[in-house]
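just leaving the lab so this will be short. below you get a single protein, a line of residues and a line of whole numbers that encode the local backbone shape. id like you to explain what the token line says about the fold, in plain words if possible. thanks a lot i owe you, the record is right below:

…
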Amino acid sequence: MGTRGAALLGLMVALPLQAYDAKDAEAFFPKWGEYPVPDTPYRSENRSVSVFDLIERNLTTGIWEGSPKVQAERERYAAEFYATLASRKVWHEGHGQATHPFQGPIVWDIVPIPQAAPPPCDQPQPTGYDADSCRYVNSLFKDLEKRDPEAARKAREIVRRGRDVWFKGTFGNQDEEYLHLARTVGRENVWYPWLDTRTRPYRFTKWGMINDPDCEQGDASTNWYDKCPDPHSSGVLGYRKYYADPLKNEKGEIVFDPATSPYREDELRKNLRYVLGGPCVQCHVAFDPTNPPKNPNEPEWENIHALIGNQYTMQPMQYVMGTPEDSLARQVLGRGHRVGTIDTSLVASDFQHNPGTQNNVMDFFNKRLFEEDMKHPVTGEIRKARTRAVLKGGEDSVGEHLALIRVYVNIGMCTEECWTPNFPVPGSFFGEKARQKPFRIAQCAKDCEAWNHADAKMPDLAAFLMTGGPTYLLKAVDVDGTPGSAFVDLSKVPQGRKVFARECAQCHSSKVAPDNIRADKEALARFYEGHVFGSEQFWELEFSEEERNSEAFKAKYLVADASGKLRPRQFAKDGVFGQDWLSNDEPVPFHIIGTNRCRALHDNHNEGHIWEEFSSETYKQRPSPGAEPNVINRMVPLIGGTRVPGERVIEGGPGYLRNFSLLSVWATAPFLHNNAIGELTYLDDGETIDYTVAGRIKQFEMAYAELMLSDNPADTPHRPQKISVTDRDIKLAPREDQQGFIKLPVAAGTPIANFTSSDPHKPLFMKCDDAVENKGHQFGISLSDEDKLALREFLKIL
């Protein structure tokens, strides 16, 4: 076991679940003890892959083992695990949220917002969520339990803690909305109409939001908030509520105490009672495609999948619903983001319009490992280490620990202490104030204790993420009882598999083909002969009866287990580690993929940019994929959009997109990184997105049909070009904070990218000039109709 693995193992097993006595717990959970642990089997896959497996197989990543403070005080952070999932600011005398200036000094202390630790899983649980967490971990590590019960117990505890971080960890990130976002959209516009309990019956129908199954509609006795056994649940998964600071008058007297004051009609609009923090599930939790709820506005825990990503939510809009319809926030987030996407560089802006899908976390332990040079953010030492690609361009190439904690910063943790001080100053054009500065991890760990709270928990979170598996159509049952098998023509699957091997696997298989045969389709067919792309449970469906009965096939690709049952060699040898991840995860230059290039050109991880310390040295030294023409800013009157001599060379790491995994592709349409290929369908009411198995299949087939069309408007047929545009006349300030006297008129029908893909600190040229969202990925469009149909049916079983 290497040094990195030993340190990781020592950290993980040193973090037991704390035991709170019933009296402490009841202060948090009035319904303590009313939720028995269910043992209902899952239809979706959960993977019994533990941290011990990763260490044994040498699959750990990165060089970061925690901040110096975390490493020095591991026992304290372990003891405070649940007490530090959330935090808030306590302002120094004379300072406060309403008066704190942009990039102002630190004039507060960070204090935790305690949450009770759940009891062990052999006891009734305080909430349905906790009971379902026990159901989840109890379904794991059963083989390990037979060999080593203590190791299985530890593995389950680690995963359970990680799941709690995923669902509950906010680490003070409410500051992003109430402090930073408020500077742009106005404090009066940062509020949440959907928090009103009277919206519960239509939250999914209207906004794609998923109600917490533990909660029920409240009333006047709950101040018109949902009634929940967990006092920090907002009633919506992914949004945690905490008491706001007391409201004081000019004399310093408390005129509204969030914990005790009676209801006020204006309290929701003014955030008087609660502020909201957002854990990771705000983007990633969704209905389990294999087990959709009867009523999408009242799901049960068995209908919830924590990792697939919510294809049906307008997540960025949830925070700005109070803004006017003609505001920049409404137009960019409401009109410029397709459902199920979010531009993660909106706040630490790269000044390019590049919304992307919520990541689908499945079988991450089978992602390829790449060895890269990494610089330690504290010592500066450069050494080689392994990493998995995470972001769409492979930017977070520093191992899971730092990649995960960067996401927490990106959703608001340590906003004022470590993040916004590195932003350019709005309205500046020269010098340091006009440029991003690198976020410094050492500074953040020193000045923002919330970083350390999160940093100590990232190994647990990574362990939980490694247990997420695919959602197979053949295990699905629809709301009306229809089995998933009814939606696929299994007779075409063997032919579709052959098409996939020739046409797709060179990019979409983790069994990596040698470079010298990637252009030879017949050689690829031979290379992938006998290889199972999908689940071992359904491997026989991938091959014809003739192939399966062939003695040569059996001898070469199958092996008998102890019971005499024939298994594919890849699974007999490696078990679940033999599962194909359905991508080689390699970065491909943007012009080869041909999709909208603004996401590929994302440059926040370049040297000198804000996320410099979260990308490897190898990433920053990637060869240039090419150059971009200089195009005059399209918002400049008369000459905007004119191409002028000269080009901008793309360098420093950007310009690539990873080959994405096709695991559960049947359940995740529309397609591409921005959900631009295909369209959503709706239930009979015309308002509710069709989340059923039948609905997902219809959306998949529509997206597949569009994917297989030419993107050239001169061809017949071709994809209709999709460009997000403003739906009304608006006024636009040239500054990113929308302040200042100058307001430019923008006519209805203007492409959103015209004003979101230019840098206001270098306003002469477009930073990315690419408005069409559904072009590119022209692979396979020349296949015969027969092969296209067979390939479509094969993809459904993956």
Notes: Confidence is low (pLDDT under 50) at residues 13-28.
